[in-house]
Amino acid sequence: MSRMSTAAPARTPRLTAVIREKATVTPLELFFDLVFVLALTQCTALMADDPTWEGLVRGLLVLGILWWSWVGYAWLTSLVDPEEGIVRIAIFAAMAALLVAALCVPSVYGDAGLLFAFAYGVVRVAHIALFMVGARGDAKLRQSVIGLGISTAISVAILVGASFTDGPLQGALWALAILLDMGGPYVFGAEGWKLMPAHFAERHGLILIIALGESIVAIGAGVEGDVVDTGVVVAAVLGVVIAAGLWWLYFDIVALVAERRLSNAEPGRERNELARDAFSYLHLPMVAGIVLVALGMKKTVGHPEDALKLVPAAALLGGAALYLVAHVVFRWRMIHRLNRHRLACAAVLLALIALAVEVPSLATVAILAALLSALIAYENHHFAELRERLRRQVAH
Q1: Which residues, 6 or more positions from 102, have their beta carbon under 8 angstroms from its beta carbon?
Q2: How many Å from the N-terminal Cα to the C-terminal Cα in the chain?
Q3: Is the pTM of this model over 0.85?
Q4: What is the DSSP string of 47-87?
Q5: What is the pLDDT of residues 183-204, one digit of tens each?
Q6: Measured between alpha carbons, how far is 73 from 196 in angstroms, rounded to an integer?
Q7: Helix/strand/coil for 307
Q8: For residue 225, what pLDDT is reported?
């Protein structure tokens, strides 16, 4: 008598994309995001090596390009399962290309410009190709992906051309590349896209945590030599207070309400446009603000007893102000309500830049930490009842 096997049949490998079913962010997505940590660190280092207005603009342009590459994968993995089929292998390939692009950042406006453009092109081609696989059988989504592919191709071509130029022309080409790349989904419409609201909101929240983590790394990188004196210790502690304040301002209520608002939006054009504007676009100035604060902290920890120069002072206080203003616009886009106290705090921070160039940088950091703490305390007291009600509603 023949022996019958009781073993389960081998699972057939999937060579296509599988539509996502679970809203939880997967380990592979977190793994992918770790490469973005290096990209953020490199952008901060690029600006720190050239602490001028031009250096600041150059660093933010690179950040904008890298951010948009990350955004593409946030949309992609909100449609297809990143750990099934060919998507897993393609994401690993995109990680390698993104790593190469991040390594090119210190010399991106010089010898490494062409390599950066090609590496960025690989990241975007993999993204578009996977989206086309996921869009099979969906004519509207396929049309949206084709439109995105056109704007992406033009943007990558401009970056290639920019690598053969320098000076103001090179900067202008970079700005044009970002404008065309990020403007694609706006020009070609948002009707065809699909996303999972809870996943999409969580993914953007996690990338803010990664940016805040990079700001902590910048504090450590700013310490010169192996001497950890009182000034360094105080600056480090205040840096954590600032990072915690930025975290609190987003995750205490904003992130919860934003996820709920996105989930309640009508599927299709309304939800897609809300996701595009509030998350893909408006989270960029939040991340940029954090990176600028990290730059200011890096300069402070190096010499806490000295006053900051104008550009690092503007980065530290202006970065925090940019972060708060982005919150104000984000809230307006989500629920059409104006957050006046955060807007007022941002105005105060900008006004304090004139003082920051006259007092020790440690004092400037202490003032920033105190203002953010006061803003949080005011909001918690003034909106205590509303805050508790919203948190209970979101929890249920």
Answers
A1: 35, 38, 39, 42, 66
A2: 59
A3: yes
A4: HHHS-SHHHHHHHHHHHHHHHHHHHHHHHHTTTB-TTSTHH
A5: 888 777 777 788 899 999 999 9
A6: 13
A7: strand
A8: 61
Q: Distance between CA atoms of 104 and 370, rounded to whole angstroms?
A: 37
Domain boundaries, the chain: 20-194, 197-396
Q: What is the pLDDT of residues 170-183, one digit of tens each?
A: 999 999 999 998 98
Q: How would CATH label the architecture of 197-396? A: Up-down Bundle (1.20)
- Cβ atoms within 10 Å, residue 283: 22
φ, ψ at 345 (rounded to 5°): -65, -40
The predicted model gives 152-158 an average pLDDT of 94
CA dihedral 362, 365, 369, 370 (to 10 degrees): 70
Instruction: Say how far apart CA 30 and CA 24 lie, in whole Å.
Output: 11
Among 252, 285, 277, smallest CA distance to 378 is for 252
Q: Which two tokens stand for residue 198?
A: 């809870």
Reply yes or no on whether the pLDDT at 71 is more than 50. yes
Please classify residue 314 by burial: count the beta carbons closer than 10 Å to its beta carbon, then call 0-12 exposed, 13-18 middle and 19+ buried.
buried
Give residue-wise pLDDT tens across range 101-151: 999 999 999 999 999 999 999 999 998 988 888 777 778 888 888 888 898
Amino acid at 356: A
